[in-house]
């Protein structure tokens, strides 16, 4: 079974509007971390935002925020005021065992969502 | 602080050859992980090195190997290349590889003909 599911293969958003990219995850480990990365056409994976499973508040980093709903096992990325440079692939990823050092270390990635920002 | 660097950026090889890719982590980072990205399989974990030791390994055949040097630089080697090895190979570094964020390099795009 997939551990990270991104149901939107592609999305369009108008410049300056907000957009939400969906991510659901599956784990029985209570100690995990969720990450979002951006991958432009150049190929480099750019770290955007992190949410730990025990964090009380939703993470925010500039125009990026994470809508973390633990009971629903969802960690949606919200990008406010979209810019043309936001056009890229976006990947949700998870690492288990982050709090007690039991993590295997590797990230488990979803299939990604291709975001296109229209002028 | 300089980011993760990978060399070469592009490679073209033929079936049966072998290839070595290099990754220099962010200064101070001791963990280096390698991932393979293909259109069909997405991003898959290859292996992780920490303090010159392989600490974790994904589900790839033995043709894929790696090593890490005392300065934390890492290399991965693929022997007897197959067409299916064509992919973007991404390297990521972090301080401890367990609880902190992994930062990725620009990748090496390998084409096997």
Description:
The complex is a heterodimer of chains A (119) and B (113). Chain A has strands spanning 4-5, 10-14, 19-21, 24-25, 32-39, 46-52, 60-61, 64-69, 74-79, 88-96, 108-109, 113-118. With 119 residues, chain A is an all-beta fold. In chain A, a hairpin with a 6-residue loop joins strand 5 (32-39) and strand 6 (46-52). The N and C termini of chain A lie far apart (38 Å). Chain B has strands at residues 5-7, 10-13, 19-24, 31-38, 42-50, 53-57, 64-68, 74-78, 87-94, 103-104, 108-112. In chain B, strands 2, 4, 5, 6, 9, 10 and 11 form a seven-stranded mixed beta sheet that branches. A four-stranded antiparallel beta sheet of chain B has the order 1-3-8-7, with no helix packed on it. The relative contact order of chain B is 0.33.
Global shape of chain B: globular
- How many whole angstroms does the radius of gyration of chain A measure? 14 Å
Rg result of chain B: 13 Å
In terms of per-residue confidence, which ranges of chain B show pLDDT below 50 for 5 or more consecutive residues? none
Strand count of chain B:
11
Task: Provide the structure class of chain B.
Answer: mainly beta
Strand content of chain B: over 45%
Give the ordered list of helices and strands of chain A: EEEEEEEEEEEE
Assembly classification: heterodimer
Q: Which pair of chains forms the biggest interface, and how many residues does each contribute?
A: A-B, 26 and 25 residues
**Residue fraction in strands of chain A:** over 45%
Distance, first to last CA of chain B: 37 Å
- Percentage of residues assigned to helices of chain A: under 10%
| Average residue pLDDT of chain B | 94
How many alpha or pi helices of chain A?
0
Rounded mean pLDDT of chain A is 93
Give the structural class of chain A. mainly beta
Binned, the helix content of chain B reads under 10%
> Unreliable segments of chain A (pLDDT under 50, ≥5 consecutive)?
none
């Amino acid at each position: 079974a997939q551990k990270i599911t991104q149901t939107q293969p592609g999305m369009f958003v108008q410049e300056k509007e907000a957009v939400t990219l969906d991510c659901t995850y599956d784990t029985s480990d209570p100690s995990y971390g969720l990450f979002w990365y951006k991958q432009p056409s150049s190929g480099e994976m750019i770290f955007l935002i992190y949410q730990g499973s025990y964090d009380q508040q939703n993470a925010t980093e500039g125009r990026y925020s994470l809508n973390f709903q633990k009971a629903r096992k969802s960690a949606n990325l919200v990008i406010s005021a979209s810019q043309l440079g936001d056009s890229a692939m976006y990947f949700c990823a998870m690492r288990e065992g982050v709090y007690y050092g039991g993590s295997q270390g590797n990230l488990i990635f979803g299939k990604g969502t291709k975001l296109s920002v229209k002028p | 602080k300089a980011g993760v660097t990978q060399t070469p950026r592009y490679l073209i090889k033929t079936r049966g050859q072998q290839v070595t890719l290099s990754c220099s982590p962010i200064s101070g980072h001791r963990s280096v992980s390698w991932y393979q990205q293909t259109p069909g399989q997405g991003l898959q974990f290859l292996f992780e090195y920490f303090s010159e030791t392989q600490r974790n390994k994904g589900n790839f055949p033995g043709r894929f190997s790696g090593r890490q040097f005392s300065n934390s630089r890492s290399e991965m080697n693929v022997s007897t290349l197959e067409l299916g090895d064509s992919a973007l190979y991404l390297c990521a570094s972090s301080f401890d590889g367990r609880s902190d964020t992994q930062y990725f390099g620009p990748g090496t795009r390998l084409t096997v003909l």
